[in-house]
Amino acid sequence: MRVVGVIDIGKTNAKVAAVDLDRFEEIAVRKTANAVLTDGPYPHFDVERLWAFLLESLAALHAEHAFEAISITTHGATAVVLDASGNLALPVLDYEHAGPDSLAAEYDEVRPPFSETGSARLPMGLNVGAQLHWQQKTFPDAFDRVASILTYAQYWTYRLTGTLCNELTSLGCHTDLWNPRAGAFSTLVERQGWAPLFAPVLKASDIAGALRPELCAATGIASGTPVYCGIHDSNASLLPHLLTRAAPFSVVSTGTWVVMLAVGAEAKALDEHRDTLVNVNALGDPVPSARFMGGRAFQLLLGEGAVPVSPETEEAVATTGHMLLPSIPEGSGPFPAAKAIWTTDEEELDPAERFVVVSFHLALMTATCLDLIGARGDIVVEGPFASNGTYLRMLAAATGRPVFADPNNITGTSLGAACLVKGSAVRSGVTPLAGEIKKSFAAYAQAWQKATQDHVGKEKRP
């Protein structure tokens, strides 16, 4: 058995997985919540708690399944600033902190245009350039001590290996820092004087270095075990399909964020005001993309668990027309300025009906995003929504295209990160959605689209 240890840090949860490279599947997992601390100068990720969890988990899983390599994937929208000693010069900012908005007008004067970066202007710290600008202006003494700037996955690579590096997919995910067509840093980096601070840029599949000797001793992992550079989580979900599927197709990576990436898309002008953007895939190529906070919406509206739903309940909701119109949460996605409304008193819905309405809403938000980026061909759903049949059926009805998913694999990011390891038996493992899609679903989709158009129009009128 050939096994790789994968560190997978999402916005909501972090985990370490043991992935069998020959069977290309997870064989063991350890998880923890990803905490945000509110002490210090601003809300920030609890990296020391995560570090302790990662080391403990690597040791425990390696004792059961000996690792031959380690790979890393994390959420985007996060940069880490280190001093000359390799310690944090400032805490690792939680990108949902509104601090950078206080300097929004000033930042807008210096950020590159969408035509250069493919990076839409986003609120809070969702543009890494805005994070760095705010930190530099608000904490000048601390920022003067910055010797290195790292993307988030590569911060963990550094702690594991001692190698300072950055990586293409992490730089290319709505940071304002990267020009995806030129394959180089954007003009912002030079303009702000940050160029000397950025560590060298590697590909996700490059080996950054070997696990540090003291960590080998602490975890029992063999000396010289390679650690791969690492990859942005949405691009990790894309990678297995990029390596095994012919274009055109799109991948819908679901988690806290639902991120759509369209390979071989129809040429279409992207609308930066509707959370469309250009990502950079693991091969270094630009990919039209769109996003909305679907996993966060699901959590806010339904909590953590799914509810058993019958076909009769789905049909009843579709024919009765109970709807949730955008947008939860506000401030991002294809309708960033719209306030969500229920077309029916939500208190009248039982839990199963509410689950269906929310799942339909999330599928129709996904379909909207796919249309905005010119997606064509098959649709592959990765992550937690892959096990939500109600969501999948409405997505198929709304798009009229084949939908694929693997309900047994809700962790596409970990497998995608494992693809970076040379010699892994890459396969997608997805199967087409089975069963006939009822005509009432397509009618519901059209009605939702019309109601949303009217709702957004009213929101825009004074």
Description:
The protein is built from 16 helices and 24 strands. It is an alpha+beta fold and 462 residues long. 35% of the residues lie in helices and 21% in strands.
Calculate Rg over CA atoms.
22 Å
Q: Give the structural class.
A: alpha+beta
Let me know the largest β-sheet: 7 strands, mixed
Which sequence of strands runs across the widest sheet? Answer: 18-19-17-16-22-23-24
Apparent shape: globular
Our measurement of the CA-to-CA distance between the termini, rounded to an integer number of angstroms, reads 64 Å
Structure summary, number of beta strands: 24
Mean pLDDT: 94
Q: Helix segment count?
A: 16
Notable traits:
single chain, globular, 24 strands, alpha+beta, 5-stranded mixed β-sheet, 7-stranded mixed β-sheet, 21% strand, 462 residues, 16 helices
In short:
With 462 residues, the protein is of the alpha+beta class. Helices cover 35% and strands 21% of the residues.
Topology:
Elements: E1 3-9, E2 13-20, E3 25-33, E4 36-37, E5 44-45, H1 47-64, E6 67-74, E7 79-82, H2 104-110, H3 114-117, H4 128-138, H5 140-144, E8 148-151, H6 152-161, E9 166-167, H7 168-171, E10 178-179, E11 184-185, H8 187-191, E12 201-202, E13 207-210, H9 213-219, E14 226-228, E15 231-232, H10 233-244, E16 249-254, E17 258-263, E18 276-280, E19 286-292, H11 294-302, H12 311-320, E20 324-325, E21 341-342, H13 351-372, E22 378-382, H14 389-399, E23 403-405, H15 412-418, E24 431-432, H16 439-460
Parallel strand pairs: 1-6, 6-15, 9-12, 16-22, 22-23
Antiparallel strand pairs: 1-2, 2-3, 4-5, 7-8, 10-11, 13-14, 16-17, 17-19, 18-19, 20-21, 23-24
Helix pairs in contact: 10-15, 11-13, 12-13, 13-14, 14-16
